[in-house]
Amino acid sequence: MSSDFLASKKIVLGVTGSIAAYKAAELVRLLKKSDCEVQVVLTKSAKEFIQPLTFQSLSGRSVYDEMFNQNLEIEIGHISIARWADLILIAPASANIIAKIAHGIADDLLSTICLASKIPILIAPAMNEAMWNNKATQENIATFIKRGITLVGPDSGFQACGESGLGRMSEPSEIVDSIEHFFIPQLLKGKRIMITAGPTVEQIDPVRYISNFSSGKMGYAIADIAQKMGADVTLVSGPVHIPEVKSAKIIKIKTALEMYEAVMNNIEKIDVYISAAAVADYRVENPYKNKIKKLNENITLDMIKNQDILSAVSNIHKVPLIVGFSAETENLENNARAKLLSKKIDIIAANLVGENIGFNSENNELLLLAKNGIMQKLNYKSKKKLAYELLSFVFSYYDGEQLK
Ligand code: PMT
């Protein structure tokens, strides 16, 4: 996974003594892939589990581990490290470092950097279940929450000690996801956004259906970024094979009719409706009850029009701000403009579909047309980055006022 929001961010990664220390190496790899600068600081016991050289090779920087290193004091020092960084991440964080930070103890480099710093701290605990559940640890965690220190995990599962329970360090990709929260502006705080994503499937008989190539990646990227920008997200999703969006309310549907019902039943309090799903325009009028036999040379399917969900939303009593998509193989701007008008919506995000663009691609390109005439082109880039630019456009276009 690569994030576009972490580029050039400076992160101090503190690694403490835990069997999960090996996962911190993957964490460094992911952060570097996202163009972060990573300064690894190891505690004495972390070095029992993993070699500094591993981190040095992955981060491209010297690893710091000692409080009183003559070279280090001359070159940088613990105060400078604390000032240099945008975020301190401790992963894995042992019960010991958690206790030290909670009580303001500064007896090694990592704990001293934490005490000397004014920047956000993110902690990914990793310990045996009994240590996690111990009252002392829980009281320390309560102190963290009071002070605004953010926690990611711990997860539940099989532990190195042979027991099973809460205490496993979260997966590195999940930790990187949490870091994004720090760096994405919270423009949509408190806004309720509904997003549709993925394809719909229209049944022909019990074993066949008509669908399209939508993977859900565009809609899921919008849902993910919207919720990282502070929105309360409802995701209405057709059948897809991509990871779920954490913290979003997900309503799973199969057919266009089911999507229509899911949207209309939940639209009432929504501020922004974004329709990224590739909804079938037609469905088979009378799906066969049994599998169609190969008896005739040709068969004909009678199809009827599905209700247009965007138009239905634009006709409800309290109309949200509506963003439609337009998937085109030609005449992008003209076709999209026609849909903007006919569907009576506020903004349309038009994309060409083809090889490596639109359907089932990692990247995309969007032309945004708003009903007041504003037009903006979003160049070819990751769907996540596009999602951020699209949501920022939505926010700035209405200047926050009509999102209330
Ligand atoms: O899912 P991915 O693989 O990431 O691909 C992304 C995408 C190409 C599917 C996405 O970017 C996109 O373009 N989604 C809209 C696809 C589409 O159905 O376009 P359309 O031009 O046929 O429809 C116009 C708009 O009407 C769309 O917002 C659509 O959701 C909406 N619609 C269509 C039919 C219908 N019955 N009800 C609707 O609301």
Strand arrangement within the widest β-sheet reads 12-11-8-13-16-17-18-19
The small-molecule ligands in this entry are: ligand PMT
- What is the radius of gyration? 25 Å
**Overall SS class:** alpha/beta
Percent of residues in helices comes to: 25-40%
Q: Quickly count the domains.
A: 2
CATH architectural group of the largest domain: 3-Layer(aba) Sandwich
CATH topology term of the largest domain: Rossmann fold
Q: Given the C-alpha coordinates, what overall shape results?
A: elongated
Uncertain runs are none
Hey, roughly how much beta strand do the residues contain? 15-25%
Largest sheet: 8 strands, mixed
Cα(first) to Cα(last) distance is 34 Å
- Work out the helix count: 15
At the fourth CATH level, what is the homologous superfamily of the largest domain?
CoaB-like
Average pLDDT rating: 91
Write structural notes for this entry.
The chain is 35% helix and 24% strand. The chain is built from 15 helices and 19 strands. Strand 1, helix 1 (21-33) and strand 2 form a beta-alpha-beta unit. By secondary structure, it is an alpha/beta fold. It is elongated. The protein has 2 domains: 10-182, Rossmann fold (3-Layer(aba) Sandwich); 192-398, CoaB-like (Rossmann fold, 3-Layer(aba) Sandwich), CATH 3.40.50.10300.
